[in-house]
Specification:
The protein is α/β, with parallel strands linked by helices. The chain has 11 helices and 13 strands. This is Histidinol-phosphate transaminase.
């Protein structure tokens, strides 16, 4: 049988750093996927889980009025958001998939920095989008300069995609830079999508949610997977300007968040101290790891964000070298604009053994 698929998929190749066919050593230290290395709040007790799982025989309470209200309350310290301005889906990636179905097609021109979260650009390409990349320079430690992006912006660009903090470097973009970018984008009727998957590892006042009421073109994406340590609940959300609500209502994401998640997440949102404490411990561990680098180089990064880009001048597959010493990272080849000499590493809860192995493996890079 000849299967019919969407034309934009005929020559499409997915880009992702999720691989299912690898075999790892028994003593592996997992520093790959972006999570909170210190887990979730202790407020979510076994008793809470039991009550949550008592709901699994019922459909969730779509459109999730209680969960959206809880998110709005969480954000209320920095911005007044109506629950209707929040759209939920299966993790931040589910939010991106839904958003792309509303605003992306074969005529869409997107501009983004690179490297950045590759799955977003990959999904946009699956709908036929043309993507222009503004490369972060290795000689500048991959530091993001917002003026480079603004100067590359053309009237033909329909969408700007940027993640904050940047993935894979872990650097935080100041909110004043994003405000400046939003203003330029609005003048030419261009969306600004700010992906804050790692956004709970920075101060909430730096979030682009503070821009959505002022700028109708700004869309902010957040998740409960990383800072809140709830990756297994697969819940993400988008915060949008009120004028964009009718358009996202075309793809409302019906029943995409489980009843278990909608029961548990409001409890997690109340515990800000867990994230604050996690950021302090991450910063201490990340500094120790970065201080151990004698041959390897690191990107511009912020200490509270648990990821960082590492690289070497040597023509070597750095991912394979880390696997050899029992450390799992993310491959540079799975991001635009970097390659086998680069990896993304996530700081573990106890960094000492990881640091010990990194010190040893660096001898092969001399």
């Amino acid at each position: 049988m000849k299967y019919r698929i969407r034309k934009t998929l005929e020559n499409y190749k997915i880009t992702t750093y999720v691989h299912a066919d690898e075999v790892f050593p028994d003593n592996l230290i997992d520093c790959s996927l972006g999570i909170n290395p210190f887990g979730f709040t202790s407020e979510i007790t076994p008793e809470i889980f039991k009550k949550a799982f008592d709901t699994i025989s019922r459909y969730p309470d779509f459109p999730y009025p209680n969960l959206r209200k809880a998110i709005a309350e969480y954000l209320s310290d920095v911005v007044e958001i109506a629950p209707e301005q929040i759209a939920l889906n299966t993790g931040s990636m589910g939010v991106i998939w839904n958003l792309d179905r509303v605003i992306i097609d074969e005529s869409t021109n997107v501009i983004a920095v690179a490297p950045t979260f590759s799955s977003t650009l990959s999904d946009m390409r699956s709908f036929g989008a043309n993507i222009d990349l503004v490369l972060l320079k290795e000689e500048d430690d991959f530091k993001l300069n917002i003026d480079d992006l603004i100067n590359s912006l053309k009237p033909t660009h329909h969408v700007i995609y940027i993640d904050n903090p940047n993935n894979p470097t872990g650097q935080i973009i100041p909110i004043d830079d994003l405000r400046k970018l939003a203003g330029y984008a609005l003048k030419q009727n261009t969306y600004l999508i700010v992906d804050e998957a790692y956004g709970d590892f920075m101060d909430l006042s730096n979030s682009a949610v503070t821009l959505v009421n002022e700028f109708p073109n700004v869309i902010t994406i957040k998740t409960l997977s990383k800072g809140f340590g709830l990756a297994g609940l697969r819940t993400g959300y988008m915060v949008m300007n009120k004028n964009f609500i009718p358009y996202m209502s075309l793809y409302p994401g019906e029943m995409t968040v489980t009843g278990v998640a909608s029961y548990i997440i409001p409890l997690a949102l109340k515990d800000r101290k867990h994230i604050e404490d996690s950021c302090k411990k991450i910063a201490a561990n990340k500094k120790k790891l970065l201080d151990s680098l004698t041959v390897l180089k690191s990107s511009k990064t912020d200490l509270t964000v648990p990821i960082v880009l590492l690289y070497t001048d040597k023509d070597i597959n750095l991912y394979d070298l880390f696997i050899k010493y029992g450390i799992k990272s993310e491959r540079g080849e799975d991001f635009d604009a970097i390659g086998k000499r680069h990896i993304r590493i996530r700081v573990p809860a106890d960094p000492d053994e990881c640091i010990k192995r990194i010190k040893i493996l660096q001898s092969e890079l001399i």
